Give the backbone structure.
Amino acid sequence: MSKLGNLGARLHRGEISYDFVGKRKIWYGVSILITITAILGLAVRGLNMGIEFKGGAVFTTPTHMSASVTQAETYAKDASGHEAIVQKLGNGSLRIQIAGIDTGQSDKIKQELAKDLNLNPEKLAADLVGPSWGQQIANKAWEGLGIFMVLVVIYLAIAFEWRMAVAALVALIHDITITTGIYALVGFEVTPGTVIGLLTILGYSLYDTVVVFDSLKEQTKDITKQTRFTYSDIANMSINGTLVRSINTTVVALLPVAGLLFIGGGFLGAGTLNDISLSLFVGLAAGAYSSIFIATPLVADLKEREPAMKALTKRVLAKRAQASAEEDLAAERAVADDSADAAPAVVGPRNQPASRSRGRGRPSGKRR
């Protein structure tokens, strides 16, 4: 943990940096691929809507039933003429869900189910949902989601700017599409708990996005008065400065949700937890991804199209090119100076003055 804290401090100070914005085309490609897969899942398999949206009945048996899930599915289908979804709960009871039936049919189905399961009909609990009421719940859910989106865009446009609002909206649609696509592929039932989970993860996704946007807004107040960084550079620094914080909050949020999904729904058999826990788990992961890899890089893309930002980018690149040329020239001069200092001294025959060599080989002139 100390290493992670040290990494976060170094990222915040700018000592190290990961180029998220520079590689945004890779992240866009990954998101497009995942989104297409989710849309195909929705188109091919569709959502398994619960009886709260389609109408129907849910019958719950007493604890420790001897009948298996497969047997209960057969009994329910024979009694109703419709496909049934049966879940074995943690206390050993069976939850039998039959969609598309009205309240008039439910009494007859209850009697036949009780007979097949060797139960007293009074001990077989029944919860009924009319089709019209279920459709009303579905419409209200979509209306609530639409109002939520509109309010989010308005708030972000006022608090920050319209480009950030657009980027946040794209990230939210990205998260919703992936989450609903996973539901279609997995086949989990969509219930009001699923809608609650979706609204929860959208708020969480916005939290991470707004943290990065706030840092970006603060650091770009006087961006055109300097020539060191482009808008994309500062956007990348904002992501890196909040990266460890986003990872920590996401991991802390995912751990209890994973407990609900894998332990509660998987090992303990509490199938009723799956509807909300899967939406939370997938949505939290998708929200953290979109906040880092989609929302902020998209803001940088939109801002770089502005004339002022284009002019700033040209100035920054020109200054960097000049600095690079000066560094190259200084390096060449340093290499030349080192070569001159390291050159060996010239060694060769030494030329003597002519006056010294004239008398060599002659008699000294002294007579004997």
Q: What stands out?
A: Strands lie at 48-49, 56-60, 84-88, 94-99, 125-129, 189-190. The chain has two domains: 2-17+24-49+133-314, 56-129.
